[in-house]
Amino acid sequence: VIKAPMPLLTTARFYLELSLHYLKFCVESESKMAAACMLLALRVTKSGDWNAILEKYSTYKLADIEQLAIEINHMVKRFPIEY
Question: Rounded to two decimals, what is the model's pTM?
């Protein structure tokens, strides 16, 4: 819907797939996790922020997903991936 570039989508997918390894995130709905990962990817890649289009199609307001995005970010910072 937002015509996101592939690097942004890949970043969001990376966060989403990484979160599958942590039980803490298993209680969240799939759509809420996807929205929070997209928010985090938008911010990390400096591609923008949550907007009216994303809110309309996801049905999540920024306030609904921001704390979850912060927790996902902490997950990545606390358990860094070694390449």
Answer: 0.89
The three-state (H, E, C) secondary structure of 17-72, written as one string? HHHCCCHHHCCCCHHHHHHHHHHHHHHHCCCCCCCHHHHHHHCCCHHHHHHHHHHH
Sign of the CA dihedral with 42 first, then 69, 30, and 14 last: positive
Secondary structure class of 15 (helix, strand, coil)? helix
Give 38-52 pLDDT, tens digit per residue.
999 999 999 999 999
What's the whole-number mean pLDDT along residues 22-44? Answer: 95
Look at the alpha carbons of 67, 82, 42, 46 in this order and tell me if their dihedral is positive or negative.
Answer: positive
Contact 40, 18 (CB under 8 A): no
φ and ψ at residue 2, rounded to 5 degrees: -100, 5
> Tokens for 8?
């942004």
